Amino acid sequence: MRFKCACKSWYNLIKSPSFVAKNLSYSKNNEFASSTSLVFKRTVLKDNTIKDKNEITSILSEDNNNRKETLLSLLTLSNHDDQNFGCIVEDFPLPSPMCFYALNIPLAGHCDGIVCLSLVNDEDVVLYNPSIKEDFEFLPKSCLLLPHKDFNDFDNEDDYYDALRSDPRGVGFGFDSKAKVYKVVRIVGFTSGYYADTHPSRAEVFTLGARSWREIKIDTKVTVFSHPSFNICLKGICYWSALIRDKEVLLSFHMSEELFDEISVPESIHHMEGFLKTFSVWKESIVLVAYKRDDDPKFLDIWVMGEPGDFRGSWTKHLTIGPVECDIPLSFWKSDEILVGTADGCVVSYNIDTQTLKYLPIHVAEGPSRTQCLVYVNSIISVKENNSSMRQLP
């Protein structure tokens, strides 16, 4: 990006769609990369001089967020240094109004260097590429979260609007390989009133380069669960952990076909009391990580799903990791390394083969359950210039 300033010919070359595509291909397929990048969404205290644990606990329990700050952190970790990470950390403060909502900004996904964030209070969806440090790009307002002419059981327009809300956990972001465009999908549902029990959820899609959202078909009521990954997009399919008809499933959305589907989770896990579940990507496959909430240390059962798009829900229990001193698993970042969060706010990499721990040089103020992370692919794709560079990517 600095070389764009060298001369006009270099500027035009680096901005060209073919160069952007080659750069992305190299980032995604370089088997000999010396480092891996991770993006964290974490909450920190604005005053770093506070050390007293009682004061920290008091601040974190406050309802207002004046003394807290939510950051995106880009970490670059060495792939070959076994003693320490040789880690580089870059922090990116969130823009207004997002910076005022420390807890309600889910990291909704990542694709090709672009990170997607959603904001529960204002239903805003934001895209950002930390590699090139452009301004955060706010998408247009929802087409569904507007007062509707048919109020039915609602006394007035305001009651309808208050009941229909976007679930920030139900936002996904990915690439449509057929149309060669990036898309954001959002699930919207009623949270109160008669509609909450009787009407299905609604859904909409925003295509980068378009001017507005458009509604798409979804046939059932969906409740999306929280977990460190929130959603996963792999090979053009987004996945959420969800509840449909009182049954826990993996909800999928095909970016090209724009169709939702349900994938059963392993039946045996349904009958395990006290077990929690999260999903991740491991060796280019969707995996379910199951663990007992109250165990310390914990054992992590790894279930591997069949090929992406295998809607039969064929799962195989591949291995059990542990014992691991952790509070919650976050995400795999290498084939033999999984990131976990500890109760005291540390983020640790656990090696499956050697069963050793290495601490990352970051800390979270509100514990691991408020932290999200994902493996990040560096790119020079500009969100703002999606009409040119994005539409022509191969």
Describe the secondary structure blueprint for this structure.
Blueprint: H1 8-15, H2 17-29, E1 35-45, H3 53-60, E2 68-78, E3 88-93, E4 107-111, E5 114-118, E6 125-128, E7 137-138, H4 157-163, E8 164-176, E9 181-190, H5 194-198, E10 202-207, E11 214-216, E12 223-224, E13 231-234, E14 237-244, E15 247-254, E16 259-264, H6 267-270, E17 275-282, E18 285-292, E19 298-305, E20 315-324, E21 328-334, E22 337-341, E23 346-351, E24 357-363, E25 372-376, H7 386-390
Antiparallel strand pairs: 1-2, 1-25, 2-3, 4-5, 5-6, 6-7, 8-9, 9-10, 10-11, 12-14, 13-14, 14-15, 15-16, 17-18, 18-19, 19-20, 21-22, 22-23, 23-24
Describe the structure.
The two termini are 21 Å apart. The chain has seven helices and 25 strands. The model is unreliable at 147-151, 153-163 and 387-394 (pLDDT under 50). The relative contact order is 0.15. It is mainly β and 394 residues long. Strands 12, 13, 14, 15 and 16 form a five-stranded antiparallel beta sheet that branches. It has a four-stranded antiparallel beta sheet with strand order 3-2-1-25. A four-stranded antiparallel beta sheet has the order 4-5-6-7, with no helix packed on it. Strand 17 (275-282) and strand 18 form a beta hairpin.
